[in-house]
Design brief:
It contains 20 helices and 14 strands. It is of the alpha/beta class.
Length: 446
């Protein structure tokens, strides 16, 4: 049975020792450390009072919110089909706390650190029949220690970027033992399956099951009420909703908004920062003033529409996308990585994003369906920008924005193509659920 190397275990111990130092300047790290401190005791307490040895337990791990949405869709299918199962759900990022609390698991908490003693304690408490990682966040100590106990190990919704940190030579050597013990893996696509095999998962154990996030975003989009107060923020004026933005995105969005407002004063912008910290919000105010814009109105201070509104709380973004005619998804400028483009697509909105999009399979799908635009004129094959570029000055985003305002029929058609792209991906939740069911079925004697 494969096991982790001494090098891996040493690096994990070193990372755990350095984490408190890093936490001094990283509030998110500090929050995660504080919450994780008592996780093993909490799991043991839950086990003592609620673990029913007569019921098989599924342990599913999803690192953050994006992976959690994929897991949520699969768990919805499994919960309906197997009410007799118990489910443990773990996450790594503090941003996933709210989702974990309402995902429908019997116990939900942070993932313990990937150290042998911690892993063994968690496995002793939960006694799972299967351990399933979502997307790619597989931890080799946990995977190998679980497999050594006879726990079936799986991956669902597996996506491996063409250039992944996990595929580097050193990372590959350290992580390979964990991937080698995987019993079944559901990959999103054929290229993902090939890259998953390169990481160490036996090729015969990999299947193409698709991305359950399509099921998740479509279900949530269909549940949005037209009377929702967040939807009302876009009524009465053409509105662009910019979600999960970082400073690099806002430095493009705000001057473009100033240029568009000069030509179309009725236009609105709703900004939804990825991390709405007080420091970030103050920086947004300063940037808006730099471009002659009025001070952004905070959602917490007023629920009435405003020309420039900033959402200063976490949550509600998927509903907010329905408030606008156009969506912008952050992370495509800078190095943060493009955030999910499927939520606005499921709301039938054309999607704009920055040039660093190539690691996002979903962005590529939307571009192929002529449902999205990269903020760069050469990618605007379904928009005539020639007449607008002079009016918009040097800003590609302003040119694209004005073109969509001038031709709302193009925006609506692109939005419908975006929705069709999402609808075509539905069904992956059921396929991934079947894979999990097979993992939960006891293996026949050898």
């Amino acid at each position: 049975m494969p096991s982790t190397s001494l090098t891996y275990r040493t690096l994990i111990r070193l990372g755990a020792a350095l984490a408190p130092v890093v936490a001094r300047t990283k509030p998110k790290v500090a929050r995660g450390l504080a919450a994780r401190a008592g996780v093993l005791n909490r799991l043991r307490e839950w086990s003592a009072s609620h673990r029913d040895a007569r019921r098989p337990l599924l342990w599913i791990h999803a690192s953050s919110v994006g992976e959690g949405r994929q897991a949520e869709a699969v768990l919805g299918v499994l919960r309906a089909a197997h009410p007799e199962w118990q489910v443990a759900y773990t996450h790594f990022s503090p941003s996933a706390e709210a989702l974990a609390a309402q995902i429908g698991a019997d116990v939900a908490d942070y993932l313990p650190l990937d150290r042998r003693a911690d892993v063994d304690s968690a496995l002793d408490a939960l006694r799972p029949a299967a351990l399933v990682f979502c997307k790619l966040d597989l931890w080799p100590e946990l995977a190998t220690r679980a497999a050594a106990r006879g726990v079936r190990v799986g991956i669902i919704a597996a996506t491996v970027r063409p250039v992944s940190a996990r595929s580097g030579r050193m990372a590959g050597m350290l992580l390979r033992p964990g991937y080698r013990v995987v019993d079944l893996a559901g990959a999103v696509s054929e290229p993902d399956a090939a890259r998953l095999a390169a990481l160490g998962v036996p090729a015969a154990r990999i299947e193409i099951t698709g991305d359950p996030r399509f099921d998740s975003v479509l279900a949530r989009a269909r549940a949005i009420r037209p009377t929702d107060p967040l939807v009302a923020l876009g009524r009465g004026a053409p509105t662009l909703v910019a979600g999960s933005t970082w400073t690099e995105d806002e430095q493009v969005l705000l001057p473009a908004f100033a240029a568009v407002r000069a030509a179309r004063p009725e236009v609105r912008l709703i900004l939804v920062p990825h991390e709405p910290t007080p420091e970030h919000l103050a920086q947004l105010d300063a940037t808006a003033a730099q471009y002659g814009l009025e001070a952004p109105r905070r959602l917490s201070a007023s629920s009435e529409p405003a020309p420039l509104m900033v959402v200063d709380r976490v949550g509600g973004l998927s509903t907010l996308y329905a408030a606008g005619e156009i969506a912008y998804v952050g992370g495509g400028f800078g190095t943060a990585g493009l955030h999910s483009v499927l939520e606005p697509a499921a709301c039938a909105r054309p999607v704009l994003f920055g040039p660093a999009w190539r690691s996002s399979r979903d962005a590529g799908l939307l571009l192929a369906h002529r449902a999205a635009v990269v903020v760069s004129p050469e990618f605007c094959d379904w928009l005539d920008l020639d007449a607008m570029t002079t009016q918009a000055g040097a800003s590609p985003l302003a040119a694209i924005w004005l073109a969509l305002l001038r031709h709302p029929e193009h925006a609506r058609a692109a939005g419908q193509r975006a929705l069709q792209c999402v609808e075509a991906g539905v069904g992956a939740a059921a396929r991934n659920a079947v894979l999990v069911e097979r993992l939960m079925t006891p293996s026949p004697p050898a």
